[in-house]
Amino acid sequence: MNLDTGKNAIIRLFNVTKHYGGKPALQNVSMDILPGEFVFVSGPSGAGKSTLLKVLYLAETVSDGQILIDGMNLSRISSTRLPYLRRRFGMVFQDFKLINTRTVFDNVALALEVAGKKPGFIKKKVMHVLRITGMEKKAHVLPPTLSGGEQQRVAVARAVAGDPDIILADEPTGSLDQESARRVLEILLAYHKKGVTILVASHHLRQLEAMVTGRSIVLEKGRLTSATRLDPYTV
Amino acid sequence: MTRYIKKALADIRSNRFLNLITMVTIALSILAVSLFFLFFENLGRVLDGGDRTGRAMVYLAPEFSETMRPEVESAVQDMAGVVRVAFVSKDQALARLKNEMAGSTQFLDTLKESPLPHALEIQIQTRDGFEQMAAAVEQIESLEMVESVEYGEKWLARFLHLFHLFRMTGYALGGLFLLIAFFITASTVRLVFYTRQSEVEIMRLVGATDRFIKMPFYITGLIQGGVGGILGLLILYVAYLLVGSGVSGIMGDLFDVNVRFLSFTAMGGMLGASTFLGWFGCYLSLRQLLK
Q: Which fold has domain B53-125?
């Protein structure tokens, strides 16, 4: 299945294949994602959803095929350029990936520190995103003292702090209760409305699909099997 | 840079024990190496001589007569490096010998005349080392009426040989201590890095460059090296204050030289070496770990 939406796409995949020790995780995946699109990637466990996201932020390299991010060919990106590419992404993971020895504020600030932003700007921006995510009052606590939902909101705050063009969320609600999941998704939706491109990989999307206009794609055994346009008013 | 320094200080605080071990190891290594330096610097000053002169005896030929004395004395005095010339007649030499032999001089009383040669007791500058003395002696030996010159060259050569041997051993042991400190620093960086591996992974995911990740480690290494170096020199200085005056008294009596603490150049060198050591341990470890 080929999801070609034209040359204006911010993310383009051409016959992307990824093998792990001969076992295929992605097979000939081709698709385009337009700027500002909300894309759900669903499918059963082991279908290749996480791998798809990993090859996008270059945690893994593809075995075959090509990926273009805003016209940049990922296979030609040097290791010294990679950090600059990653700053264009905001990433959210199921296991949050927060630094437990740093406060909530410091965790969020990290995304701006790596970009060399000034301390004054960082303070202002971090407090702003913590306010949006409802974590302002927990700015000076350590992540292990927070609930899973709160930790994920901190992770989302970190993902959006650097004003990314694209947010990649790998099972962002996987370990959260319904209420926490809803709050996390609301934050993502708010950024989607601001024009940020969002890719969410999850194997239980019913709650997500009911909230947003976007596109749902399904992966099975590493292959793209279906694509549906979502509209919450018609679901 | 302030951000990196703050981060490095925070890292040191959060890994107090490991960092303390590294600093103490560097301090002990610097202490050992500085001790060698202190020893050799002071021994060097002893070799140079307290007043920077050496004594030599110029034995004159049997044909020498007292009438030739002004001419020979002046020829020796004009030699480069000679600072004092004193004539010792054969009778004076015999009297000295009798004096030195104390009670066992009966056989000397049987002598009709002194069998000892006339001599000149001279002092030669050794500011540029004993080689300067050897050169002056060689020139004096070539003078007419000079039979031979003695200045304890065999003893001196043996002493110099021993001194060089000591110095080489000192260099080798010093190098060994520095190498040990280097390996311990590198290992500490590895341990700290492993404890922070997930943090480094997260940093990379949010777009940190290698420089951003490495800088706090480098600054930690520089601080470890610098603090270790200062600590090592401080320990040596305290030891010097405690035992230095006693040793200085003995040295003063024996060689007319007082024990001095390390020169500023040597201290600067030690501090530079320890700081470099801290950084270099970090550099090599990170180069391997962040491949």
A: Alpha-Beta Plaits (3.30.70)
